[in-house]
Queue: 2 jobs
Job 1
Amino acid sequence: MLQALLLAAGFLVLVAVSVSSVILVNKAREQNSLLVHTVEVENQISSLLLEIRRAESATRAYQLTSAPRYLSEYETARDSVLPALEQLAKLVSDNPDQMAGIAKLNDLMRQRLADFARAIDSVKDNNVAASIDVLRDSASIETVQAITDVSRAMRVQEDRLFARRTANVDQTQILASTVTIAGSCMVIALGAVAVFLLRRSARVRDEAEAKLRDLAVTLETTVDERTADLREANDEIQRFAYIVSHDLRSPLVNIMGFTSELEELRGDIFRRIAALSRTAAFAPATPDDATAGAEPELEGGDKQLSDDFNESLGFIKSSIAKMDRLITAILNLTREGRRQFKPERIDVCALINGITKTVAHQAAEAEATIHVGALPNIASDRLALEQIFSNLIDNALKYLRDGVPGEISIEGRTKLGFAIFEIADNGRGIDPKDHQRIFDLFRRAGTQDKPGQGIGLAHVRALVRRLGGTMSVASELHKGSKFTITLPINWTEKQRDNKS
Amino acid sequence: MSNPVTIIMIEDDEGHARLIERNIRRSGVNNEIVPFTNGTAAISYLFGADGTGAEHKGRALLILLDLNLPDTTGIDILKRVKENKYLKSTPVVVLTTTDDSQEIKRCYELGCNVYITKPVNYESFANAIRQLGLFFSVIQVPPAAT
């Protein structure tokens, strides 16, 4: 901004200096021509006087010698006087003062010329004395005097003009040089300021560059550190989950084992009770019957006790089974997290058709049709992709609306190096408030009428993330769901390292 | 039996140890069972005071080994047993909760004879142990080295 301003100012100064120089030079030229004019006027006055003198001397010579040579000289001079006067008049036509002088000179010249003519005529009449008298006449002498005076006055005037004009010219020239010098100084000053500013901004830029370089290096280091931290944390979590799931399993084996032992004992105990009560009621029996018999017949309070026992054991066992499933799920997830992905070129269409074939039976049962559109091929991990798509297709089939034939479609497109897959259904949909929840481990949404652990989507999202992609859901209750998966078209090991 | 097989059970969880023992007994195996609840005690028993394992030269042993021990890993014990010239022919049955395929593979590579995952499902567990009992009865216990 400042530099643009400086440039504009410099340009303006240059223009101003040039214009004023041109103007001043023109003015000086005009003044010079006026000066020349003055000189010309003086020159003309001199030549006029010269001519009149020539005429006079020729007249006088003719008086003395009567030689026709002088007569002709006289005539030449006489003829030159008036044109010279006219010339002078033309030169000073712009000056009224001088014009007055010219008018006077005109009269005087004519008078003088008339005197000369009379003198010449007298000589021609051989009356030399009369001729001389003409020129000696006091009137004639006065005329000469007047001519001298007038011409001197005119000269003085022209001299004054000359002096004044010379002063003018000098002034203009001084002005011109002053303007030029001042302009040059300003341009130099502006240039200096510009150079200074340029230097300063260059220095600032260099500093900024150095800072940027430092920052980039620091940033890289920070990112590396953070990445290492994250990777460590991730590994830590993996190890943690792995160890926890193992260590949780160990007591579970005991609980289950001893519960089963208790169950065995229960059988023994109640068989014995049955045998004892039978012995008490009817006849003595051998104790062997208690162990050898099948399910003993129990009655009344004993049966109640046995049922309660069974119920408690049943709850314990089903809880253990559930816990075992959860632990297995965590274990599988952590194991999945540790599996190395191998990117390969995958024909996604073929892969999905393979999945739909395996679920064809389920689809037929649910009266669902699966439509597979044109899908972009990508380079990724085959097993991970299979798990992603089969989980989503399974879900779509699993959560259809009762009484509505299912329609499931799988579409794909590419955008900026990413492949976007959309798995849409017309099923029961997901309440928007549950959209986040469904991706959490062991969380489910909606009517709980289908078996499941709440693992599928958590697993799918973990896989998608590891493959450097993102996933989202768009759904409303009773209006179907659409899951969108964005995966890089060319996934490489390096990307995984960066993300994990 | 003139040279009965001694079962060395290295298992830190006493509940598991008890369950294993009960099921072994149920399957009709009456051999002596020497239980250890940590790796250090087991190692000092197996390799003796001099650490060579020469004490057990010529004895018929069978080792039941849990991998997750508090003080050492079962893998290390397995490795040492299989590297020891007196013990290397001793059958080792790895009995653990880990069903990680990598770990199973590693155990077999180190020379483990049988790998059994402790199932939470009791029926499977009891079954596995009983089959182990069957295994004990048919196993070719290495002849006493002279």
Job 2
Amino acid sequence: MIQIENVKKSYTDEVAIGPLNIEIPKAGLTSLIGPNGAGKSTTLLMIGRLLDLDAGQITVANMDIATSKSKDLAKILTILRQENHFVTRLTVRQLAGFGRFPYSKGRLTQADEDIISKYIDFLDLTALENRYLDELSGGQRQRAYVAMVLCQETEYVLLDEPLNNLDVARSVQMMEHLKYAATEFGRTILTVLHDINFAAKYSDRICAMKHGQIAAFGTVEEIMKPDILTDIFETKIEILQGPYGPIAVY
Amino acid sequence: MVKNVMPQTAGFESIQTRHHSNKLWTWPFIAAIIAIIALGVISLFTGVYDIKGQADGKEMFFTTRVPRTLSLMLTGAAMAMAGLVMQLVTQNRLVEPTTTGTIEWSGLGLLFVYLIFPAPSLLLRMTGAILFSFIGTMLFFLLLRRVKLRSSLIVPIIGMMLGAVISAISTFIGLLFQMTQNIESWYIGSFSNIQIGRYEYLWIIVLVTVLIFICADRLTLAGLGQDVATSLGVNYNRIIFIGTALISLAVGIVAAVIGNLPFLGLIVPNIVSMFRGDDLRSNLPWVCLLGMGTIMACDILSRVLIMPFEIPVSLILGTVGSVVFILILLKQRRSKRTTR
């Protein structure tokens, strides 16, 4: 369980986030949605200890993010941000292998190698595993990073806009993989998504943010309502019932 | 959509045989070692003094030739490693001790030691050079935190500007206290006056190499960025600090004993990265070897080109290095055009 209590973060006087109070239960896929500047990424970064809190407390699996050792947290929690500009020349397999760093400290055992192989296969990267990252397309590289994050075998996986720069087919594939990791590998996945319909189709829960506050939190059916979404995005949004569940139309 | 579900059901043998492909003891590596040994032997027997014909030839061989070849190997490895670690830490391929001002800072450090102590020992000079290069490199890294686009040309430009300012300060102080000769001779790094008793501190580089090897994976992770490193439980600021300290140690020692050796840290890691990627642990032996080879080849050239005189090795390194620098720039621009 991720518990967020009275968390605040202020950038300037006008731009401030919180106080946030929320409990995200274990297991399943939770999506953070909301307009630009709502504080989704900031919240994710704070949970992932990449950004300090100004006030409040965050605990993940009963470990306080602020006081726990980073190397201990690395075994229960991992966070992946959007891709950065610099592309290190590592092979897909080397990158994924670094996901085992919290356990192996660089000395990979056979068990580590098996785990790495498992997630490389899972993400359809088997044929690419010895290719360098700078020789891959954006989507392939994104999958390689997700493989690394899964290799870390943490209970909690935080992803900041994993569908960024992916086309529809790649986005569907990525979400299928994440959904599978959540249900079959029992991971608790928290992800920032921009597309409401992707969130609706694949999430177990949706957390909607607006103006640095949590506007709504609940199951897909509870959040995918025209009045709630219209209010959050300040845009007229209708809900249709599609073959795979509710669809937002705007 | 998710096709291959669990790997246990897929071929199990195929998993067992799969591992990291970057093996060290390959035939090219053994060939490289043999080439380095050969270069070492050539280096030992290159020179004006006839060590076979003269009566004291053997003595000369051990007081000048052996120390010279050893110090070439040690400095070559040190500068190449320093470049490699810097490139990882800054996430920029054009960074090395001469494009970050590190060398200029150690020059300033040397100058300060000369100012404060009348006839400083080598140990004192070295300490000054190490301290100043550490401060300078740290300052550069702090400045870098303000730069958003780490992979850009801005990074080496900032570094070179910083270096130019520092060397201007050095020159000014030198002029003020009539020590320009010290600076000028220092800026032309050369191995011509290496002999027994003057190079032994370079052995510390072996220790630095071991320490870098121990931190290798953490430094590679630092190269993936602060977020990735933190997420994997690595203390990013600490590893940057350790990396900087190790670079400064290596560069400071070389600066005090040999002088300014430009571009070695740029050429070698880039060539290794092209062929073997950026995994520091498996690349470090290659980088060390190639660093040794490059500087020995340049030094042999410097000794034979205008025999019986010697060209400073830094001149040859500078010429070769600047060409490689431009080639890397052009290659970067081309790859950017194809991927975007």
